[in-house]
Amino acid sequence: MTTIRDVAKRAGVSVATVSRALNGKGYVHEDTRKLIDKTIKELSYKPNEVARSLYKKKSRLIGLLLPDIRNPFFPELARGVEDEMQEHDFRLIIGNADENPKKEISYIETFKQNNVTGVISATNQTEMKHFEDLSFPVVFLDRTSNHYPSVYADGLAGGKMAAREMIRRGSKRICLLRGPVELKTAQDRFKGAIDELCNFNINFNVMTTASFTFADAEKAAAELFEKFPETDGVIASNDLGAAAILHEALKRGISVPEELQIIGYDDIPLSRLLFPPLSTIRQPAYDMGREAAKLLIQLLDGEISEHKNIQLPVRFIERQTTRKVENNG
Amino acid sequence: MTTIRDVAKRAGVSVATVSRALNGKGYVHEDTRKLIDKTIKELSYKPNEVARSLYKKKSRLIGLLLPDIRNPFFPELARGVEDEMQEHDFRLIIGNADENPKKEISYIETFKQNNVTGVISATNQTEMKHFEDLSFPVVFLDRTSNHYPSVYADGLAGGKMAAREMIRRGSKRICLLRGPVELKTAQDRFKGAIDELCNFNINFNVMTTASFTFADAEKAAAELFEKFPETDGVIASNDLGAAAILHEALKRGISVPEELQIIGYDDIPLSRLLFPPLSTIRQPAYDMGREAAKLLIQLLDGEISEHKNIQLPVRFIERQTTRKVENNG
User: What DSSP designation does A262 have?
Assistant: First the structure.
């Protein structure tokens, strides 16, 4: 009977490599995988299905690295990843890097030591060295990378869209909440909005928030009305920031959307529950998670090459923190 | 030179047990641990510190099982666990059981296979068999258990407190949102509120929600005002439910707190950002996470026995969905 050793010997690779190729565990170069498939057919090798399925079950572990589990956007991403992985019989463990590069490195070590099959990372250090030379594939989620496959939403278009909807609805003294400068996703939407405001010659001010946390959102909201009391439209960097602005405006007796329009970013579940409900730019978080999981599974199956980038569209969700568009507008 | 084998032989235990005792990895009975300590002293055994620290580093992995990562209460718990574990040089991986017993079992398997040092579980199957015969200790968080150490907040007192504050502030036709019947924590607060309402002979109605998700909260809120339009006070089962009630009330032109008072439960970060900001019963989620982590570390260090239960107090956070207490009230 042909054994896995015969296949390895004939293909000129190690038994471990054949095993990885058979089990979809760990990374095997596409050419090697093809060679192994060919050899298996030539030798009519039948892997031991029981052993294989036991082995597969044991090792079908995926690591998901999130930047901040307390930001409601990321649990949505995680659920998308999870549901897709579940359907393909993978298990998902989550590490919360907490926007801290040291924690991030530590989690990658943890994933390595626990022989994960692959990693999906939504953290910010996409160019860091510790993603190099890993024995498993990495997919970036909600991030772009020049070196790895990724799934993200079109931030530049989202920012433009927010500005355009704000202008169409008549705001003239707009304030932009600028998210953390080190986050590329935050800066994409910021740049998109600025481009559009410049195209239309609209005046604007900028308030930068140090992070996407609740505390910083509240602080920025209070400051915004002190510094720029003439503001009649706020384009927030995310929905938490928009919620804080809405809260602060209502507290100050400013009517929304009559005197002040607000547009958020993300469309987290809470945004619908605010009153008035928040108009926002929707990122398809759950779908992004699903797509990233699919991409990783395709990589593990050797179906695609390493540099696929998937950009998902965003859209404007019209609720009640923006005015209706005038018919003649 | 004395080796670990000599210690094991003399103490009458396996090398693995001595190793676990030395490294604080895996569970060792307190008596066994004492015996091993004694034997080490008798034989003047010096463990190889380099090997030991490498080994410790590799295995200092804690599994945290959450019931629903999308409910903002749980990421707060997770952050508490994480910060305490971080300070003690443990790493934390998170599994989201998604209120699904099958997923829960699957995560416990995953944790086993990855040789975690210990597990903290905030899921609902506290009495299930698959927590038995594990080689590592388990601490329950936000749950009580008759068989395992646990950290939780006083739900009965919280429910009473919510009802008392509602009554003191003059609501007479109260509606209780009852959380999922299978969740003991939800039922504790529910029972506490009922007790207090009965003590004061206050009329009340009950709306049961199938889950703690956003969708079910919105559904319950819409139904409540159809079924019980005379309601002048809502005691919600959590803050998401309270946010949905607030939203629905404002949509219907009901003034809060003048015509309708609302009290939530949890005090998630978003509750402050609602308008009017939500009065609620605060569970110290972050501190609960910290305490559970401390308890697990103490168990691993053999400092405490297995059945310690820590109950943390809750408190009323007065914001603006409840009226001021009248001086003569």
Answer: E
Three-state DSSP class for A301?
Answer: coil
Q: pLDDT per residue over B156-214, tens digit each? A: 999 999 999 999 999 999 999 998 888 888 999 999 999 999 999 999 999 998 888 88
What's domain B155-284's superfamily in CATH?
Answer: Response regulator (3.40.50.2300)
- Average pLDDT of chain A to the nearest whole number: 88
Helix (H) or strand (E) holding A162: helix A155-168
Nearest to A104 by CA among A142, A136, A138, A131: A131
Contact A292, A120 (CB under 8 A): yes
Sheet with B203-208: strands ordered across: B203-208, B173-178, B233-235, B261-266, B279-282, B315-317
- Give the gap in angstroms from C-alpha A43 to the nearest C-alpha of chain B: 34
Q: Measured in whole angstroms, how far is the alpha carbon of residue A85 from the centre of its chain?
A: 16
For B36-59, the pLDDT digits (tens) are 888 888 887 776 544 444 444 445
Q: Of A101-110, A254-263, B67-76, where does mean pLDDT reach its minimum?
A: A101-110
Alpha carbon distances (Å) from B57 to A103, B35, B251:
14, 25, 55
Q: Which residue of A has its CA nearest to B73?
A: A70
Cβ–Cβ gap A93/B95 under 8 Å = yes
CATH of domain B4-56: 1.10.260.40
Query: Quick check: A58 contacting B, CB < 8 Å?
Result: yes
Separation CA B98–CA B103 (nearest Å): 7
**Binary contact (B96, A107; C-beta < 8 A):** no
**CA of B1 vs chain A CAs: smallest distance (Å):** 31
Task: Identify the architecture of domain A155-283 in CATH.
Answer: 3-Layer(aba) Sandwich (3.40)
d(CA A276, CA A172): 21
Domains B4-56 and B155-284 share a fold: no
Q: Which CATH number fits domain B60-153+285-313: 3.60.15.10, 3.40.50.2300, 3.30.70.120, 3.40.50.720?
A: 3.40.50.2300
The single-letter DSSP state of residue A204 is E
Give residue B287's identity as a one-letter amino acid code.
Answer: D
CB < 8 Å to B98, chain A: 79, 82
Q: Out of A106, A214, A240, whose CB is closest to B91? A: A106
pLDDT category of residue A266 using cuts at 50, 70 and 90:
very high
What is each CA distance from A203 to A228, A231, A321, A327, B82, in whole angstroms? 12, 10, 20, 24, 44
β strands within B51-199, DSSP E: 61-66, 91-96, 118-121, 138-141, 150-153, 173-178
What is the mean predicted confidence (pLDDT) over A258-274? 96
Model pTM? 0.81
Which residue type, as a one-letter code, is found at position B55? Y
CB pairs under 8 A between A and B: 108
What's the gap in Å between the CA of A295 and the closest CA on chain B? 21
Q: What residue ranges of chain B have pLDDT lower than 70? A: 1, 24-26, 47-59, 125-128, 305-306, 327-329
Q: How close A8 comes to chain B (CA, Å)?
A: 27
Task: Check residue A48 and give its pLDDT.
Answer: 58
The predicted model gives A240-254 an average pLDDT of 96
pLDDT of A50 above 50:
no
